[in-house]
Amino acid sequence: MAGLNLDGKAITPLTICLIGGGGFIGSHLCEKLIAETSHKAIIVDVSSEKISHLLEKSCSWFGRIEFHKINIKNDSRLETLIRTSDLMINLAAICTPADYNTRPLDTIYSNFLDAIPVVKYCTESKKRLIHFSTCEVYGKTIGSFLPKDHPLRQVFAEGAEHGLKFTIVRPFNWIGPRMDFIPGVDGPSDGVPRVLACFSNNLLHGEPFKLVDGEQSQRTFCYIKDAIEAVLLMIENPEHANGQIFNVANPNNEVTVKQLAEMMIEVYAKVSGDAVSNVSTVDVSSKDFYGVGYDDSDKHIPDMTIINRQLGWNPMTPLRDLLESTLTYQFQTYSQSIKRELSNPAC
Q1: pLDDT (tens digit per residue) in 305-342
Q2: Hey, what long-range contacts does 50-59 have (CB within 8 A, 24 or more apart)?
Q3: Which of 2, 96, 181, 210 could lock 187 by a disulfide, CB 3.0 to 4.6 Å apart?
Q4: What topology is assigned to 15-257+284-342 in CATH?
Q5: 268 burial via Cβ count (<10 Å: 0-12, 13-18, 19+)
Q6: CA 15 to CA 12: how far, in whole Å?
């Protein structure tokens, strides 16, 4: 399975260490690596639930993927795993908007400060790093105003001063199966996932959609499998990716969040076979929904120039198609347990 890279050279099999590899993005990336390449994956995470199907001993690829239950905040094993790998991919982050307000310290440590030791280990071991940023945080930030101890400054500084080979990825609303959680089913009952999972939860429970501040903000949505193709290009074409920051998005799938809700209602009716014409929407304030201090930009505009030029990547999946794939998964995974819950309410 060792194909050719963009320069026509044979791709050398790599041992890839993925921090946060058991999550939504990591699970899809692992599937791609194991099924379609000769690379080996070392997964570092606090949970293996979303990759359990890849860890079964009966699988033909058993031995090319291993899982280590590690909290990177306080486990010295991480340094050893980085040193024994060829490439480091850091996916670990808190990415649900509600956590930005309710768990500000956790968010700062997880998304920012916890990344600093990873950068340090990669520099000392001369290992290449692919670091995941986020359009939600850095999309509003001018680099010159970043705090001095910010990991992005650390990454660029290590690259300039010590030769760290790095790539930074900025995902814009990647959507697909296994994204987030459904509150009270496979997540906390008082949890607030990202917008698509929130709306999926409303559909599954037959509840009104809550439109935060009218949901007129515009977003682009990218299918996870398209996005993973972009990440694989970064992995296998370091000469084209090192030192670059890539926006990975689908500008063709831009809608307001209210339009997303309307489209999801239509697609869910097709997926479930149930009439959902009675699904209503209610406007709520961001203060009531997320808490005091929540702020958001009204439009995220991804510039695709660099990723088009360097990797020749373009997303392929239209919004309606990616919603159908995602909602089919949500319906097949959750509908029966939710029906049982609704038919036997707690006394």
Answers
A1: 999 999 999 999 999 999 999 999 999 999 888 888 77
A2: 50/22, 50/23, 50/24, 50/26, 50/178, 51/21, 51/22, 51/26, 51/27, 54/27, 54/30
A3: 181
A4: Rossmann fold (3.40.50)
A5: buried
A6: 10
